[in-house]
Design brief:
The chain contains eight helices and 27 strands. It is of the alpha+beta class. The strands form five sheets. Strands 2, 13, 14, 15, 16, 17, 18, 25, 26 and 27 form a ten-stranded mixed beta sheet that branches.
Length: about 475
């Protein structure tokens, strides 16, 4: 009987002792709430778009536009001459000392009336002639209202045979009849050549179609449903330059470069809204606003590992952290710590996420126990509320987002490394170090807004 009483006493003593050294606490869980939509400042980026158009491509387009009969004068009475002019062979367009040189082979049919009124008698006769000639024009490449104009002027007209008719067995020159008609002919040819070249080099649709391709959203991380998008705003241009049979100019696109969680709208560029402005100088850098996503689940896993093999306590009273969970609450992050040791249960901290640029760490500023948690601990385990313990815990709640920053940089670098959204369009560039601007909270993740600068070239090749 005494033995039984002794055993009961020992069991009760152990139970009492264990209860006094290890407490189970019940704290009220701060429930997650909805975060406000993310809004961040956007900065204009400036993208360089060098455009090179070979004159042989211009010639191809001009020959397609200008074909067959290009001039006709069907009235004989006004100047004793009727004329039809056809393009006889393909037009050649080359560079001559920085000017556009156009060589136009022509086939000409004329009907010439010669003779006169002698003693009241009409002694006229008519002859039909077929002539071959070559007209050479020169013009300067000028950029105006989305078009390159040549402002061509006829320099020479060279006939393979001198215009003449045979009368009474003799060759009689009729240049005096042909040349006056050529004045009208020259003006018409100049206008037609300029119109054809302008139509060939109207690059509005050509450029805007390319920009539409460039501005389509690109999925840069499927796991986090993260998208990159360029939104064009203004297009600037330098004056066109002709050199070595190539017309070149620089376009500068002012745009927003952004990343989104969730696919953004794919808005086509409005021709009416994108204005082309001539400028003397281009900016040589872009600034892009991007985002880095750090999901709470991922952060929880990292911080849980940070706490492994770490003890927190005072004297003989100690706890270890078994699990860490994070979520959003009232503009702060709640950090739930599942404890084991002198205290068992879950305690809740809250803090404001900040970024340490030197160490590339997310840390929680103003970290403290949630009010209800603090009240409970003051009653049951007030030693846990000590500043030294909380400060030590704050060290282990910080975590690195260097992998996410590297991922963001790699993603934008891939976009800038021979990226071709469509045939004839090639994007290349480089970025400089990334800077964290701010950190905002969503229901599922910490979102860091980052800023980066760099250089970008968008090449549009060919003229199709």
């Amino acid at each position: 009987m005494k033995t039984s009483l002794l055993l009961i006493f020992i069991v009760v003593a152990v139970f009492v002792t264990s209860c006094s050294s290890s407490k189970m606490i019940q704290t009220l869980k701060p429930e997650a709430d909805l975060a406000a939509p993310i809004i961040y400042d956007k900065e204009l980026s400036y993208l360089n778009i060098p455009i090179s158009i070979k004159l042989k491509d211009v010639a191809y387009q001009t020959n397609t536009i200008l074909n067959g009969l290009i001039y006709e004068d069907s009235v004989l009475e006004d100047d004793n001459l009727m004329m039809k002019v056809w393009k006889q062979a393909p037009i050649e367009i080359t560079d001559e000392n920085g000017k556009i040189k156009v060589v136009l082979p022509l086939k000409i049919w004329t009907k010439v009336r010669y003779g006169g009124n002698v003693f009241g008698m009409n002694l006229y006769d008519t002859r039909e002639l077929n002539l071959n000639g070559v007209v050479t024009l020169l013009g300067e490449a000028k950029l105006k209202n989305w078009q390159l104009t040549a402002a061509s002027s006829v320099q020479t007209v060279i006939w393979k045979e001198s215009p003449s008719v045979t009368i009474a067995g003799k060759s009689v020159p009729i240049t005096y009849l042909i040349n006056p008609a050529m004045a009208y002919f020259k003006s018409t040819i100049e206008k037609k050549i300029d119109a054809a070249i302008a139509k060939s080099l109207n690059f509005q649709e050509y450029v805007l179609d390319a920009l539409n391709e460039v501005s389509k959203p690109v999925n840069i991380h499927q796991g986090y449903d993260t998208w990159f998008k360029i939104k064009p705003i203004v297009l600037n241009a330098t004056e066109a330059v002709l050199k070595k049979d190539v017309v070149s100019m620089n376009l500068e696109l002012a745009c927003f470069m952004e990343t989104f969680i969730g696919e953004p709208a794919n808005d086509n560029i409005s021709k009416e809204k994108i204005q082309l402005k001539l400028v003397d100088k281009m900016k040589d850098k872009f600034t892009a606003s991007l985002i880095v996503v750090s999901p709470y689940l991922k952060a929880s896993e990292i911080i849980t590992k940070n706490f492994q093999n770490q003890e927190f306590g005072s004297g003989s009273k100690k706890v270890t952290i078994q699990k860490v969970d994070l979520w959003h609450k009232n503009g702060k992050v709640v950090i739930a710590l599942t404890m084991q040791g002198s205290v068992n249960g879950i305690v809740y901290l809250s803090g404001i996420p900040k970024y340490n640029a030197e160490e590339e760490l997310i840390y929680f500023d103003d970290l403290n126990y949630v009010l209800e948690t603090k009240s409970t601990l003051m009653k049951t385990a007030n030693w846990l509320v000590g500043g030294l313990i909380l400060k030590k815990m704050q060290t282990y709640t910080s975590y690195s987002i260097k992998p996410e920053l590297e991922l963001a940089k790699n993603q934008i670098t891939q976009y800038l490394n021979n990226y071709s959204p469509a045939k004839g369009i090639l994007i290349n560039g480089k970025v400089e170090p990334i800077v964290i601007k701010n950190i905002q909270l969503t229901d599922q993740a910490l979102v860091a807004t980052i800023s980066t600068t760099g250089k970008l070239d968008l090449k549009i090749n060919g003229l199709q």
